[in-house]
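re: the backbone from monday

yeah here it is again, tokenized this time
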């Protein structure tokens, strides 16, 4: 019914508009181009994905794309035509809208953040600056069919010149700029792979441009505002790529602290949690027998069992303990309050706390991971408790996609959240930067990293955002 001609921004999904995210979630089919990042496509949930990008150098069959859009609009309610950056900046959005209008197809245009302006913000080169440059021109260096575009009249205008699609045309671009009177010593900023983990910002002199090399896609920013280039952030973690690897959602508290200090934050879970239905049923049976305690040692355990419980009153009369504040919080989401919470989130503290409470002859039910540390229940048993452990979930290592590998390879620090996460990461150990830091959220994870011979390993005081941040700042303090 409706075709959304939509901009995806320069790359990373964080640059999408809220409108685009809402539509993507509901999309039934998405036709996408070459430069669309998988992090964006992931938001399209269960939509059918149809790649219509060209390989560089091959002609784009626009007629075929228009026909496809019209065909899909008759089969589906919500069709997304997803384009890099903004659809109206070298995106043929206008042509596609005209074709749809002509065919009587309902469409809507959805703005995107153009790489032309994103590159400026990410590199810190202002596009305009009072008394220096009062306008900017956005152009391509490569015309229809790959022909050279004559940049001399544009360069002669002054102001800031933003050049797209110039990577294969560097010599030509350099000559044009030189011919238009630009000083060979003038600075030019190259923004390569803006917003990706392997983003590179280079400052060159015009005389160096023709022989320079950098990865596509890339943008050149030419003009006097280059003198006013500032870093994108002045924070202590400026331009550090920090990879969070937890399952589930990331902590917004941690993310905002990191981005506030200038870091680029990525999230790739290293493991996925698979629930064991039989064990969960076993847990519920045990719950009906009214143990004295239920002990939650992770958020995953809470999710695994509480999503299966029909009536929360099954917990009445049972005391609940949990391993830390985060676990307590996710318990509260299910309207349950813990009787006992370890202040520093680890199993040892929780065991001590339970012992101090007095658990002799108590029946303690623990929904655990298949890879749970046996020491915890042993300690409770030694204190005289009867422990019933149900292995309600198990972690499974996730295989990384090519774009995820790209993030991993360029990470400056990785936060590792569990022993199984450490094991999963081990499969990719050879791909990490030699100086990449690894922060374990607790001692068990820390020991798992050490025993797998990782370097630059740190142990955070606790999994809380403040402690993780502290470890990261410690690691980078000499940079
Ligand atoms: N509609 C897009 C532009 C499409 S033309 C937009 O508004 O951004 C493709 C060109 O855009 C590339 O050759 C490159 O010059 C630029 N580009 C797109 N994504 C980029 C990125 N992440 N980093 C640097 N340049 C990018």
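seq for it, each position gets an aa:
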């Amino acid at each position: 019914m409706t075709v959304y001609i939509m901009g995806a921004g320069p790359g990373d999904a964080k640059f999408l508009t809220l409108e685009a995210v809402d539509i993507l979630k509901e999309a039934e089919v998405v036709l996408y181009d070459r430069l669309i990042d998988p992090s964006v496509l992931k938001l399209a949930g269960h939509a059918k994905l149809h790649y219509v990008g060209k390989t560089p150098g091959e002609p784009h069959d626009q007629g075929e794309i228009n026909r496809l859009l019209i065909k899909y609009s008759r089969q589906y309610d919500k069709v997304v035509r997803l384009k890099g950056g903004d659809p109206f900046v070298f995106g043929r959005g206008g042509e596609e809208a005209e074709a749809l209008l002509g065919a009587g197809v309902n469409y809507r245009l959805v703005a995107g953040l153009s790489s032309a302006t994103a590159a400026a913000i990410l590199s810190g080169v202002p596009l305009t600056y009072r008394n220096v440059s009062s306008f900017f021109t956005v152009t391509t260096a490569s015309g229809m069919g790959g022909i050279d575009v004559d940049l001399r009249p544009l360069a002669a205008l002054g102001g800031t010149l933003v050049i797209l699609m110039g990577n294969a045309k560097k010599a030509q671009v350099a000559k044009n700029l030189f011919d238009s009177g630009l000083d060979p010593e003038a600075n030019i900023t190259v923004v390569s792979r803006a917003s990706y983990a392997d983003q590179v910002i280079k400052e060159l002199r015009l005389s160096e441009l023709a022989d320079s090399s950098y990865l596509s896609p890339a943008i050149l920013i030419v003009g006097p505002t280059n003198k006013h280039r500032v870093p994108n952030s002045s924070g202590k973690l400026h331009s550090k790529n920090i990879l969070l690897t937890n399952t589930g959602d990331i902590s917004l508290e941690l993310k905002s602290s990191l981005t506030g200090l200038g870091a680029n934050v990525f999230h790739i879970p290293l493991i996925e949690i698979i629930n064991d239905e039989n064990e969960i049923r076993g847990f519920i049976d045990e719950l009906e027998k009214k143990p004295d305690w239920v002990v939650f040692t992770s958020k995953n355990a809470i999710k695994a069992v509480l999503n299966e419980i029909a009536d929360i009153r099954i917990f009445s009369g049972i005391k609940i303990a949990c391993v830390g504040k985060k676990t307590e919080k996710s318990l509260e989401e299910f309207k349950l309050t813990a009787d006992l919470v370890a202040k520093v989130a680890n199993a040892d503290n929780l065991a001590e706390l339970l012992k101090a409470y007095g658990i002799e002859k108590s029946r303690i039910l623990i929904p655990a991971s298949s890879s749970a540390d046996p020491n915890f229940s042993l300690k409770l048993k030694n204190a005289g408790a009867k422990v019933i452990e149900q292995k309600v979930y198990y972690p499974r290592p996730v295989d990384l996609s090519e774009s995820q590998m790209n993030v991993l390879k360029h990470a400056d620090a990785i936060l590792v959240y569990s022993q199984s996460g450490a094991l999963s990461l081990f499969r990719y150990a050879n791909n990490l930067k030699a100086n990449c830091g690894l922060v374990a959220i607790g001692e068990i994870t820390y020991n798992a990293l050490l025993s797998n011979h990782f370097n630059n390993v740190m142990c955070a005081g606790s999994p809380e955002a403040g402690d993780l941040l502290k470890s990261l700042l410690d690691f980078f303090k000499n940079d």
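The first strand starts at residue 2 and ends at 7. The mean pLDDT is 94.
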